[in-house]
């Protein structure tokens, strides 16, 4: 089985906030490469794009995954994650991006994104809280993203200038990036806009829309009720 290394942004004064994440990693034999602990949060693009480039470059595994930390739980080990990735990307040669139920911020991309996923899949849009792929390709992809952010673009709204998801979608829109969306939650379920009634906790972990992913991403303020309800 191909090797996998997990890189996670953790821009918090202490690691207490990411204790559930670390516990889930330990349970499944994953040792995340944390960066940003004790450092100042500057912006999404600075912290999760520009500073991510050297972290990916320093990895020694064949495959690299980026994952948020404080709102993520692993439910499977690296072998299972790689198996899910191979199912999503049979050639194991493309970047896989976690999906979402809402198209944001470029809603004009809705039909294009829907066309990238099988009809009926519950997560056909993108969520940049988790993505993975071959190290060299992922490094090239995030470097392209960094360079685009540094250069700027007139069609990026000023209020979204430092939003990493905006730039992922912008570069896809202009065909500067290519990736596969995990629309069927084979690897991860992003629960940012998912109603609590669609999430069930069972003995083997969290299920959303009847699917048990390898990773659950509670993703942001709108899912705090889910995290509180499940004691996380």
TrEMBL record:
Residues 4-226 form the PLOD1-3-like GT domain. This is PLOD1-3-like GT domain-containing protein. It comes from viral metagenome.
